[in-house]
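Lab meeting, item 3. Inverse folding demo.
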């Protein structure tokens, strides 16, 4: 689980919230100014028939009051109904990102991209295209440091986070969502406190596709579907930097529809974030992986527990 967790480096982007809602609800977002974006959101909506996955509802994440969600790292998550999924993609924009965007557009799906600032600087057109397509653009640090933000000094970590936020916003030409995912899920209490105090919600995940591992697209498809059938709902983590994910995504989206799942889209908003607490038997999935990957120095303080990895650490878990 280890190496990959740390080595994945490119993230993605979300739509600025007001734009997303505008596009989704009114169908008026124009992509005319966005190069490489043939998609006017309204036109995309029209081209998706009843067989498309689409978006079943929108969850507003309170931009005035940050929290931390995702059961693999935190003892609470978004309050999703049975068979509801939120799709998230990390580490872009990257070379497979256009293929991911094409697959999502074909199904009128809306997701959240957690972008690496450095990548956004290099591929700003993809950031704009993702936003124009109706997705939520969020943050995943500037440099996705190999040693993680946890092992940097607090000042250096904050500087990397803020540089990433600035780079993504610049590429987007707007303010991205106040959503942040720690590279390798390696947070610290101080960094979480700082971000949440600024209105950022920290996203872990409820399940992941292990797309940092060597496998075929079909194997990834089978794996993530089996995990989803077990969880029945949740925030799913993919990487749009991974070619196998881009390849399996069209079939994954069709399978979601076929199996009765519906897609929930997250946007920043003013309503309280709908949260549900984990059960008393909750344990962190990511802390044992981080400890194994980074060693004792990375041991997290209080809110996480050491035991209870949900699955045996295979090669390269997040
Ligand atoms: Zn990452």
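The presenter then showed the designed sequence:
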């Amino acid at each position: 689980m280890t190496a990959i967790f740390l080595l994945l480096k490119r993230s993605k982007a979300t739509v600025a919230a007001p734009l997303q809602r505008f596009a989704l609800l009114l169908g008026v977002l124009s992509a005319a100014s966005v190069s490489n974006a043939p998609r006017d959101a309204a036109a995309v909506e029209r081209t998706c028939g009843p067989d498309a996955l689409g978006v079943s509802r929108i969850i507003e994440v309170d931009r005035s009051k940050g929290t931390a969600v995702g059961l693999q790292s935190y003892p609470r998550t978004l309050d999703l109904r049975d068979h509801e999924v939120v799709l998230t993609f990390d580490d872009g924009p990257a070379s497979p990102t256009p293929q991911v965007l094409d697959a999502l557009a074909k199904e009128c799906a809306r997701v959240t991209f957690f972008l690496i600032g450095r990548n956004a600087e290099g591929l700003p057109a993809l950031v704009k295209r993702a936003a124009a397509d109706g997705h939520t653009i969020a943050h995943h640090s500037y440099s996705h440091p190999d040693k993680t933000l946890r092992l940097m000094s607090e000042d250096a970590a904050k500087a990397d986070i803020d540089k990433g936020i600035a780079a993504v916003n610049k590429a987007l030409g707007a303010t991205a969502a106040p959503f942040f995912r720690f590279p390798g899920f390696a947070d610290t209490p101080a960094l979480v406190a700082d971000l949440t105090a600024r209105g950022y919600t920290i996203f872990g995940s409820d399940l992941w596709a292990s797309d940092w591992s060597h496998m075929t697209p079909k194997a990834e498809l089978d794996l993530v579907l089996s995990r989803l059938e077990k969880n029945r709902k949740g925030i799913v983590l993919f990487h749009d930097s991974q070619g196998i994910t881009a390849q399996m995504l069209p079939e994954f989206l069709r399978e979601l529809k076929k199996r009765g799942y519906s897609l929930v889209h997250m946007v920043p908003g003013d309503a309280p974030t709908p949260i549900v607490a984990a059960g008393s038997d909750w344990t962190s999935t990511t802390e044992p992986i981080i400890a194994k990957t980074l060693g004792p120095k990375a041991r997290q303080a209080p809110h996480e527990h050491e035991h209870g990895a949900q699955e045996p650490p295979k090669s390269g878990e997040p």
